[in-house]
Amino acid sequence: MTPIMELTYSDGTHSGMGYIELWLPPQNISGPSSAREAFTVSGPSFSPSAIAVRVQRSSGSSPLTLRLEQTDGPLVEQGGVPATLISTANAVWVTYRFMAAHQLTSSQSYHLTLISPSDTVYSVFPMYKGVSYGFTTASYFADGYAQYNNGTGWSGWSTSDGQINRTTGDLQLYFSRSPMPPTNFQAVFQ
Residue 93 needs a FRET pair 20 to 30 A away by CA distance; which of 83, 137, 182, 188 works? Predict the structure, then answer.
């Protein structure tokens, strides 16, 4: 993925797409290995109607579980996406619609965790934020970062070039809000 551009307008506002690339190799979600996006709602509180994530299925037929919880532990909601909706050929967007109304509260921290039983393997490919290339937070999601747990505890992402515990990447995800879903990744967290 290559950043399209970032525009700075005369009134000081910014827009654009500030993700540089996908981090490879992907990390697997299976058994004790899981991935999550840790984030804090920096804007106003909002009530999402659904969550979408981009994943690929490597093998197996058990559902991918999405678990949304407050950072301090309380579960907001948990649900599954059937394996039959997730391609084994390439990464696809899949959506989980919340069963109840929930408010994600301003200044509250959350985790969106992706888990799977050991008989099925899913893969995720985080996006690298262009923070080190001068892109502003207007062009990428600055309120969170991707984490990975290989069964020994959570840490930032490790990349193929040997960098470990990176906090400059995001899982590919977005929340849809009622009544109108967002048209792009940035709209969901503003």
Answer: 137
